[in-house]
Every structure is written in structure tokens, then in C-alpha cells.
Amino acid sequence: MSDFEKIIASLPEYKTLIYQHGERLFIRRDGEYEILAIRLAYRIHCMAIMTSIVVDGDGVLRPDGSLLNK
Fold it and tell me: Which spans in 1-70 are helix H?
């Protein structure tokens, strides 16, 4: 189970998703999650990681490349 899948499994909505989609919740096809809700959550997860790169521990790099001090 990937870190992303562990995060999803820890959420209260996980039980509802399992009820709706069963064991195929995290099935990937052609490199993407098959279930739309999971696919969208994964894309948002990746975007959040990309936009919160820590630079030298002094700040966070914004998507436009500017530095936001903590």
C-alpha cells in the first residue's frame, strides 16, 4: 500500500468508498486509478506535494517560484 493509499484509508470517508466500490478501490489501469474519486484525490495529492517543496528549511517554494518564509 502506497503512502497515498494509507492516507485515504485513514480518512472517515474510506468506509463509504469501500462500501461503494469494494476491494477494487485502489486498482490502477494504464497507470491511473480506475475509480474517479481516487484518481482525482491522487492528482490533488501530487499537486500538494509539488507546491510545498521546502527550501533550505527557511521557507516554502510557491508554484510561481517565489519563496514564502515560514
Answer: 3-10, 14-21, 36-50
Looking at residue 50, its amino acid is M
Spatial contact of 55 and 61, defined as CB atoms under 8 Å apart = yes
User: The cell 490502477 sits on which residue?
Assistant: 28
| Model confidence pLDDT, tens digit, residues 7-51 | 999 999 999 999 999 989 999 999 999 999 999 999 998 887 766
pTM metric for this prediction: 0.69
Distances (CA, A) of 13 to 48, 66, 67: 20, 35, 34
